[in-house]
Design a protein that fits this description.
The complex is a heterodimer of chains A (169) and B (181). Chain A is an alpha+beta fold and 169 residues long. Chain A contains 4 helices and 7 strands; from the N terminus they run βββαβαβββαα. Chain A has a 5-stranded antiparallel beta sheet with strand order 2-1-7-6-5. In chain A, strands 3-4 form a two-stranded parallel sheet. The chains are: A alpha+beta (169), B alpha/beta (181).
C-alpha cells in the first residue's frame, strides 16, 4: 500500500501537478556509457555497494518526460472509450502492470487525477476523491490561481502530503 | 464473465486474428482500399454458412455500429503500444510488463510472447486477470496450429504470401476455437 506519485492533468492534456512520494529508486542506467561506467565501478573496490538498487516503485524522470506521458495518457484515455466493445464506456480507469498500477479519476469538468501506487492499493479511488477535495479547497478557492496553469500552492502540497501519509495505513 | 473479443497481433504490428462475441458495438467491415483483408476478422454477423434466426436478427438490432475494422485494429494496437511504453518508462525497467487496463465497461488483457506476438482479450470489467488464458491460447492452439504450420509464412512480403498466411491462421484458429470453448 504505497503511493508512488500523483499527477493532475488539465482538460487540454497538460500536466499541472506532479509529485513523487516514497518508493522511488534511482534511474537504472540506460546509455552505453553509463552501463560501461557501472561495470567499471562494480569491478573496483566499491563493488560491494550496489550502483542501482532495484526495488519496487517507479523511476525518477525529468519534468519533460512526465509532460509527454501526461499527454499520452490524455490521448489514450480518449481512444479507450472509442474502442469499447459495448455501446457506452468511460475512458481508462485503471492501468495495471506487474509492479505498480495507475488509477485515473476524471472529474465532470475534464480534469484527470492520476494516482500511481503499488498493485495492492485497494483504496486508490477514495484517495483520489480526497485529492479532488484538496484541489477544490486549496487550488480552486485560491484567488491567485489561473485556470489550467501549473499548481504552485503550498497549501495544496501540504494537503497532498497529509493524504498520502494517511493512505498507506 | 463475458468475453468480448480476442485480437492477435504479429511482430509486424499487424492484426492476424480477430474474433468477437456478445459485442453490442461491432466493428464494421474495413473500408475499401484499406490494408486489412476481411477474412482476418471473424465477426459474429459474418453469416458465412450460418442461417440467422429471427431471434438473432432482433438481437442484432440492439447493436451499435462501431469503427471500421482496420481503424479499430490500429487504435487497439496504438493503445497497447502507448501504455506499454509508458509503463516501461515509469518503472525505469525494460522488463516491466503492461498487463491490463480497465474502463467502466470493459477490461483489456494483454499477454506478449517472447517472440513479440501480442494476445489481447477484452472482457467485462469485473473479470480477473485473463493472462493465464491468453498464455494457454498461445501454448496450445497457436503453437500447434499456427506456428508449426508449414503453410504459414510470417515474413513473406506481397499480397500472395499475405493471403495464404491469413487463410492459414484463419482456418487453424477456427478449429482451435471450437476446441477451446
Amino acid at each position: 500500500m504505497t503511493v508512488y506519485g500523483v499527477w493532475v492533468i488539465n482538460k487540454a492534456g497538460g500536466l499541472i501537478f506532479q509529485r513523487n512520494y516514497g518508493g522511488i529508486k534511482p534511474l537504472t542506467p540506460r546509455s552505453g556509457l553509463l552501463c560501461f561506467l557501472t561495470s567499471v565501478r562494480s569491478l573496483s573496490a566499491h563493488c560491494n555497494e550496489p550502483v542501482t538498487t532495484i526495488s519496487d516503485g517507479i523511476a525518477q524522470l525529468s519534468a519533460n518526460e512526465y509532460l509527454v506521458m501526461a499527454g499520452t495518457l490524455h490521448g489514450v484515455h480518449a481512444i479507450t472509450s472509442r474502442i469499447a466493445p459495448v455501446a457506452k464506456s468511460s475512458g481508462v480507469q485503471i492501468i495495471e502492470s506487474e509492479s505498480f498500477k495507475m488509477t485515473i479519476h476524471m472529474t465532470l469538468t475534464g480534469i484527470k487525477f492520476v494516482l500511481i501506487s503499488s498493485t495492492d492499493m485497494s483504496n486508490a479511488e477514495s484517495v483520489l476523491q480526497k485529492v479532488y477535495e484538496a484541489y477544490a479547497d486549496a487550488v480552486m478557492k485560491n484567488p491567485f490561481y489561473t485556470l489550467e496553469m501549473p499548481i504552485n500552492a503550498t497549501g495544496f502540497d501540504a494537503r497532498m502530503n497529509a493524504i498520502v501519509a494517511a493512505s498507506g495505513t | 464473465m463475458t468475453i468480448y473479443a480476442l485480437y492477435i497481433y504479429d511482430r509486424h504490428c499487424e492484426c492476424i486474428y480477430y474474433h468477437d462475441w456478445h459485442q453490442t458495438r461491432k466493428p464494421q467491415p474495413p473500408r475499401a482500399g484499406g490494408t486489412y483483408r476481411r477474412d482476418v476478422a471473424r465477426y459474429d454477423n459474418d453469416g458465412e454458412g450460418d442461417v440467422a434466426t429471427e431471434e438473432e436478427v432482433a438481437k442484432r438490432k440492439g447493436t451499435v455500429a462501431g469503427l471500421p475494422f482496420d481503424e479499430q485494429a490500429k487504435l487497439v494496437y496504438g493503445v497497447l503500444l502507448s501504455l506499454r511504453n509508458m509503463v516501461k518508462k515509469l518503472s525505469g525497467r525494460d522488463s516491466e510488463q503492461f498487463t491490463a487496463y480497465r474502463t467502466s465497461s470493459y477490461k483489456f488483457h494483454l499477454y506478449t510472447t517472447p517472440t513479440n506476438f501480442h494476445f489481447i482479450m477484452m472482457s467485462d470489467p469485473l473479470a480477473d486477470s485473463l493472462r493465464g488464458v491468453l498464455r494457454q491460447l498461445y501454448v496450445g492452439p497457436f503453437l500447434a496450429y499456427v506456428v508449426r504450420n508449414p503453410l504459414v509464412d510470417w515474413d513473406r512480403e506481397g499480397q500472395d504470401g499475405k493471403e495464404s498466411r491469413e487463410k492459414g491462421v484463419d482456418n487453424d484458429l477456427t478449429s482451435s476455437d471450437t476446441r477451446d470453448r
